[in-house]
Design brief:
Elements: H1 7-13, H2 17-33, H3 36-57, H4 63-84
Length: 85
Amino acid sequence: MQRTQSPVLARLARLNPTAVFLATLALVLVALFAPGPAGGALLLALAALLVWLMAATWPVQRPATRMLRLVMLTLLIAVALAKLL
């Protein structure tokens, strides 16, 4: 592990990508089908986690990947706010 690498990121790197994808998909589906503010709060919590992950990995991402991640994050936040309102 590099001296500048976070232990949390090292632990995330060891997780099974398929399991992480399925858990995230389940969270998004629960949040989309949950009524009103509960679903919006779950989506905002997921967005906060993604903001943290994007900030931690920003320097090593290509510009095209950065743009795609920003677009997806914006859509997630827009859906979350629509559910809250």
